[in-house]
């Protein structure tokens, strides 16, 4: 993970402080809410990708090779 620059650190801190003022909580609680929201967004994106793959039509090359079923023995 790349290191955070000082400017990014201050931007993040300002975002946490404004959210804390809006919600009426501490900056640590605001930071936890931001992380919670980011995690939820990541989960929703991954669920959307999984659903998209599940809705995709099945192609012949996606089927397993069942050559052993064609043997007479």
Describe what you observe in this structure.
The chain is mainly α. 64% of the residues lie in helices and 0% in strands. The chain contains two helices and no strands. The protein has helices spanning 6-23, 27-55. The radius of gyration is 24 Å and the shape is elongated. The N and C termini lie far apart (56 Å).
List descriptors.
single chain, 73 residues, mainly alpha
Summarize the structure.
This protein has 73 residues and is an all-alpha fold. The chain has helices spanning 6-23, 27-55.
Instruction: Name the beta content range.
Output: under 5%
Q: Give, in order, the helices and strands.
A: HH
The average pLDDT score comes to 85
Structural class: mainly alpha
Describe how the helices and strands are arranged:
Blueprint: H1 6-23, H2 27-55
Helix pairs in contact: 1-2
């Amino acid at each position: 993970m790349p290191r955070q620059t000082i400017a990014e650190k201050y931007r993040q801190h300002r975002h946490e402080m404004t959210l804390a003022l809006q919600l009426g909580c501490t900056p640590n609680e605001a930071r936890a809410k931001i992380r919670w929201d980011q995690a939820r967004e990541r989960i929703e994106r991954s669920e959307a990708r999984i659903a998209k793959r599940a809705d995709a039509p099945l192609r012949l090359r996606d089927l397993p090779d069942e050559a052993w079923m064609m043997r007479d023995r």
